[in-house]
Amino acid sequence: MQRFKTIQAALLMAGALFACAPAALADTGAQHHARRAPLVIGHRGGATGYLPDHTLENYALGIQLGADYVEPDLVATKDGHLIARHEPNLIATTNVKDLPQFASRRRTVMLDGVPDEGFFASDFTLAEIKQLRAVQPLAERDPSFNGKFQIPTLEEIIEFVKRKSHEEGRTIGIYPETKHPTYHQAIGLPLEDRLLAVLTRAGWNHRDAPVFIQSFETANLRYLHSKTSVRLVQLVDADDVNPDGSLAFNKPFDKPYDWVVSGRAGLFSDLLTPQGLAEVRSYADGIGPWKYYLISTACKLMNGAACADTNGDGATNEMDRALLPPTDVLANAHALGLLVHPYTFRNEPRRLASDFGGNPVNEYLAFYELGVDGLFSDFADSAFAARAMFLLKHEPDYARCLVSGRECDQGQRPEPR
């Protein structure tokens, strides 16, 4: 009944916004209605729009808001523990710069070929990491929880997620990302075997475990493919979106860094050509593309070589851009049996194309209708509400379950693959 009430609240919050979905995209995903419900993947936790990244408190709220999976980005400590931080550099996501006992640790390192100044996890033991507290890295979001929450280890996250799965009565999974694997290899703290050892101890190093492992590099995914049957996902990045909707590939966001080290030519986008997708299929189970690879946006008006401020708010951002037709990347990936989990969906109006009318639910609906198998969200509640609306349109059994006032059974509610 509690699950029903959560769904009910989400639907009330979403209201009648389904009718506002962009008309050009309204029916493109109808042929996918019979597949499993798309996953809500909690980006850096799933409540990242509300709380500091990668904390147990964030994961707890993200799960309560409807996340099927939570994402721990993994970096290594000096003594070899895997902790959840967005980057090896702790300066933006913790209070480390404010702690005098660690002032001497500040330094500059070369991270993926670029000098990066700050405080690095590999210079701290786990005991020292536990003295730090998480902070909100984005200035536009609520800073009132800064300094309140600890930095968790991967083991702590898995134990917590297992407990929440039992409490919630549903399977919740983890979606770890190996951050900068070439860098970690170079400093003698490779991530992959450490990750597999933790999964093995947790009983989750197998094909049916509620786990996806993701990476922006390719060599470490190939290595993992040779060592585990856990599902693997190739992340695909870019630097920016050009005025015409094409993607910009400026260093270091132009290609996987292991390609830079090995001298391989090409760009991230090469992984999403038909040939590139076939290559990915040889070692991974899915792709995690930046969402603009699937549906991009272009400037509505130009001001010289840049987008013009079309809504008169004094800024130029996604609100001054319009949707372009979907690409064929998703269809090509599905034709090869690859899952497609785009990133990252956020609620702030400046991040939403003008077609969405400032309402994030409309963006989620557009991508659900396109046929994605899941997506990464900072706001699991909005992603969950939009998915419920999508299922109400396409899944009669789900709709009947919702209005019955009883708990939906396994065949009628979304469950992680």
Unreliable runs, pLDDT <50, ≥5 residues? 1-34, 409-417
Question: Class by helix and strand content?
Answer: alpha/beta
CATH class: Alpha Beta
CATH fold-level name: TIM Barrel
Q: What distance lies between the first and last C-alpha atoms, to the nearest angstrom?
A: 23 Å
Count of separate structural domains: 1
How much strand content do the residues show? Answer: 5-15%
Radius of gyration using CA atoms only: 21 Å
Query: Architecture, CATH level 2?
Result: Alpha-Beta Barrel
What's the tally of helices?
A: 13
Tally the beta strands.
Answer: 19
Estimate the global geometry from the Cα principal axes.
globular
Largest sheet: 4 strands, parallel
Strand order of the largest sheet: 7-2-1-19
CATH H-level superfamily: Phosphatidylinositol (PI) phosphodiesterase
Helical fraction equals: 25-40%
Overall pLDDT level: 90
Explain this structure to me?
The structure is a single chain. With about 425 residues, the chain is of the alpha/beta class. Strand 11 and strand 12 (about 245-250) form a beta hairpin. The chain has a single domain, classed as Phosphatidylinositol (PI) phosphodiesterase (TIM Barrel, Alpha-Beta Barrel). The chain has a 4-stranded parallel sheet, with helices on one face. Strands 9-10-13-18 form a 4-stranded parallel sheet, with helices on one face. The relative contact order is 0.16. The protein is built from 13 helices and 19 strands. It is globular. Helix content is about 30%, strand content about 15%.
Provide a brief overview of the structure:
This protein has helices at 2-14, 56-64, 126-129, 154-168, 181-186, 192-201, 219-227, 257-262, 274-281, 329-335, 360-370, 380-394, 396-404; strands spanning 39-42, 69-70, 73-76, 82-84, 107-111, 114-118, 173-174, 177-178, 212-215, 231-236, 240-241, 247-248, 286-289, 297-299, 302-303, 306-307, 321-323, 339-340, 374-377.
